[in-house]
Amino acid sequence: MKNFLHLLSVAGLSLLASNSFAQNAASPYKVLDTVQVMGSGGIDYVYADNDARRVYVPRGSQTYVFGLDDHKPMGVITNISGRGVAVDSKSHHGFASSNPIGMFDTETMQKIKSIEVQGRPDGILFEPFSGRVLIFSHVAPSITMIDPKEGSVLGTIEVGGAMEQAQSDGAGKLYVAVEDEKKIAVVDMKTFKLITKYDLGSTAGETAGLGFDVKNHLLFAMCSGPNVCVVMNADDGKVLTTLPIGNGSDGGGFNPNTMEAFSSQRDGTLTIIKESSPTSFAVEQTVQTKSGCKTCSLDSKNNRIVTICTERAPQAAGEAPPADGGGRRGGRGGGPGNLDVLWVGR
Predict the structure, then answer these.
(1) Which region holds residue 290: left if phi is over 0, alpha if psi is between -120 and 50, else beta?
(2) Exposed (0-12), middle (13-18) or buried (19+): which is 48, by Cβ within 10 Å?
(3) Are strands 153-157 and 143-146 parallel, antiparallel or unpaired?
(4) Which of 120, 135, 185, 291 is the most buried (most CB within 10 A)?
(5) pTM here?
(6) Is 266 in contact with 247 (CB distance < 8 Å)?
(7) For 164, phi and psi rounded to 5 degrees?
(8) Which residues contact 280 (CB under 8 A, 6 or more apart)?
(9) What is the tens place of the pLDDT at every residue in 223-234?
(10) What pLDDT, in 10s, does the model give residues 195-228?
(11) Selecting from 2.60.120.290, 2.130.10.10, 3.90.79.10, 3.40.50.720, what CATH number does the domain 29-314 have?
């Protein structure tokens, strides 16, 4: 009888745990926390360093650093700015995509040097197969490769078109969103040459954000004008489906822990797409964030999405607005105001 009661108790606890997990999995995403710091200058990408548990946000002439777990401001890297940041965990060197490229020490948060490059740098990625930092440009050269230890330029790869967000399979293939061509470029990181470009189809808009399910070889291209996510096979470029997203996507990703793709939009929405199987996809939720939160990054430990925007400081009575748009939500304006860092999760 005692053993029976023990088994019954264990079964009950297992059922409660199962129900709790199911309820948690079914609970909606929401903004869990917002951190604000004053500053000036435009923003573009946000980068979550999951190894060192930090968040990097370039703004104006500096880069802000936050704790990925406690969300607290950790400091500012002065004289380092650009569109986005990539970090090599082995050398503890970080890089900001600007012209010139800014190189810094992630431990001391001090600038090391500037690296002269050509083109118009935008996206940036530490590519694990080659062990190189890749700078993606809107004009030639398309991709500039940098040695993360020495900070030297190792070469370039010509792809053509305006390069945006990229994803690596970690095994020698790189996928890059080609914004103006509405295509995904496939690059061989063994030979450092373009393999092909996948056409996103007539229903796709300009693509900037890119999510990648490495296990199932699926790409999620986030497009604007029309505002859709194009899901395609990464091996052959076959389009599997097209799903609606919010207006003005400029960033996306995929969380293998939850099997969800996500896209952040300028209109203040975050679209969550559920992959139920390698052939079944649906928009799971549209989360309200803040206007201008158009780029994002994934905290893979806590299954949270980090997104950013700016808010212009209130103007004094009779004061004219800044000529450049002054950090208004949705733009890269350089006026003073809040930098908002949002953590979205369940």
Answers:
(1) beta
(2) buried
(3) antiparallel
(4) 135
(5) 0.88
(6) yes
(7) -125, -130
(8) none
(9) 998 999 999 999
(10) 999 999 999 999 999 999 999 999 999 999 899 9
(11) 2.130.10.10
